[in-house]
Sequence to fold (520 residues):
Amino acid sequence: MPAATDRRHFLQTTGALGALGATGAAGLLAACGGDDGRYSAAEQRGFSVAETVSAIAQGRLDAQALVSTLLARARALSSLNSLITLDEAGALAAARELDERRRSGATLPPLAGLPIVVKDNINVRGLPTTAGTPALRHVVAAADAPSVQRLRDAGAIVLGKANLHELAFGITSTNLSPFAGPVHNPYDTTRIPGGSSGGTAAAIAARIVVAGLGTDTGGSTRVPAALCGIAGLRPSVGNGGAERRYHDENAVVPISHTRDTVGPLGRTVADLAWLDAAITGTAVPAPAALAGLRLGIPAGFWSGLDASLAPVVQAARDRLQAAGVVLVEVDLPGLSALNDQVSFQIALHEPIADLPAWLAANGAGQITLADVAAGVASPDVKGAFSAILADAFGAAYADAINVHRPRLQALYAACFADNRIEALLFPTTVLPATTIDAVNGSSTVSIHGGPPADTFGTYIRNTDPGSNAGLPGLSLPAGLTAAGLPVGLELDGPVGSDRRLIAIGMAIEALLGPLPAPPI
Fold:
């Protein structure tokens, strides 16, 4: 490998560029560019966010060239089913305009030329918002969701709309709608990428784009991040009002206004930090200091792990401790039972009002909730909509919101305060990616050869409680199993601690190192 490529790889994988910001990164990148200032397609696909925007700002890489490279990658890997809509004309036009602005000497915004994908339940102006379901196949968004608009204002280019578990009601992204299809994991195409933001995660892992947007209700950014070897953030939601970090109301096909949020994904925490900064108007944080950092170890989240995954997360934990992180054993008494009184009671009741409200706000009021349910193609999602139409949890909803959820939030708040910890640390999922079930979409899995267990409940076991409490959660790569499957490590922090959580995640990923690219 040439020395210049070695230097670029070092800067990318250590996260040094992300910590420097665009100006400092530009100088470093210039020293690494090679004599002719040109980059191979493989180098372009491997750039971090900071490297991408620095190369474009310097004129060492045209945005049109990069977009063309990534569009070719998307077409070559179409069998992954990571994308539903590829907006070639729109992306190339945006790139051409940006290149012209740079050549004219205009000041470029911080994410100028960064290609991204957006999960197909999030509105993108002029493109269909299908949510991966037949009834919404031709609903075209009149305006960008606020988070998308802020990224565009910062110079990002939308390459297309990413596939997902149908209507975001699942954790595998095995979408059986005829125009979507199951999303495949780039590390092993016979396996799931996780969900429901599986298309976004698979596209990022496969080097189709550097970063993108998903959504998260109970784990839908973090689970696919873990299973695809990338980073994913669920921003703070709190009680759904002022404590929300992102505000995209009526711009995302909903499950639950109480729990839903848009969330960024990237190959590294440093990458997603740039998206979060653009969306929130804040600065990219510097990595935290690990020595003396206090993180809580909730025993229940570390139990019952699959034998292939357990040594990977234990090794990561040991390295953190060796680096001076103080790991504090903590207890969350009654957490599971309390969470069970909140989770489905909210997620399978609120769609009754929330989905019709989105349809009305987006010019599709002629489509009813019953129409959407009737068109569902995936058996597991059809089952969920049967419960929604019957309002199976309606009687329990008021207590879930007014009694059990406040108790859940108080339990977490006391844990953080009483133990003087900045975040909880645990495996994102209890097992790596399972094989695709192309018949049911999601059925059962086995942990270490044990009895069949519900796929959905198994994968969200560790991500769901913090979601119901409105906490921010960050998943980052911990390593690979012996079979080469990615494993994720999660940090959950107090409401409003998102930037600190990102800073901690950046420090941890610098310690653990990057994952190798998938073998595709």
In short: The chain has a mean pLDDT of 93. The chain is about 40% helix and 10% strand. The chain has two domains: 1-61, 62-512.
